[in-house]
Give the backbone structure.
Amino acid sequence: MKKKATKRTKTSISVCVIANNKNHLEVWRRKWQRMGFHEQRCEILVCDNLDRNRMDAFQAVRFFLNTAKGKYIIISHLDSYPLIKIDTIEKRLSELDKHDPTWAVAGNAGIQQDTLSFITLGLTTFDPKPQSNFVRVDSLDENLLIIKSEARLTVSHDLKGFHLYGLDLCDIARRLGRTSYVVRLKWMHDSNGTLGDEFHQSCVAMEKKMIAYREKFFWATTCTFLAFSRSRLVQAWARARAHWLMRNNEHHDQTAKEIIWRHGLQAPLFLPAYALLWLYKKLGFEKRRHRRIRCQKD
């Protein structure tokens, strides 16, 4: 891992790149320097994979986010570079701060998951020139990722490789209550990415992680149950379990129990769910389920 930095007097940007080719790295440096990204203006961090892969992308991104000192941390591919000056980029990011102070990740190409719309602003390869300078998205392409340092983001420790870390980063930001944007920045990306076997292996790994992560419909706390589903039956079941949990709870008074019951009644299927829960427990189904889970763990 190489790190070159000098005292930053005019900017607060850290530029980070994973390098696996010395000649490409020198070309990358020259192109960024033409736009003002030199050591007198910003911090430069290089993940040195020139002779071997010392770090995969997930490891490198964690290193960059933990080490970089800039207010904005730019993570770029070797074939991705700006066509505008550093001052213009700083100004646009400051505008995004005012537009949405909760933003955490920005880039030049992304996807809106609800409409499956591909969004890009200023990227020379694709630029439909919509009116807005900022479009909110759910995932970003890895050729350019700009992370706001104060968001304190990271990426998953149980994923590896060189693909989908942009999606992972945006998903973590969303869970933290942050947002992601495609930002209008005049930019060049010299390739369309590599979609080989390694990419598809990364897709499978991401799918397994997200399925396991989101598979539970509801979660228990020490004093209630939460429904993580839009199903009315699941919501009613969680409210029923919450009330059952409070029935013999010695740590809360009758008023608290009545409030749980009143809120439970707001779920349309609460009473049928409560009756089913009573049968479920009285007929011993829950005890059998617990025994089966314990046997599987053993």
Observations:
- Confidence is low (pLDDT under 50) at residues 3-10.
- The chain has nine helices and 15 strands.
- The radius of gyration is 25 Å.
- Residues 197-214 form the longest helix (18 residues).
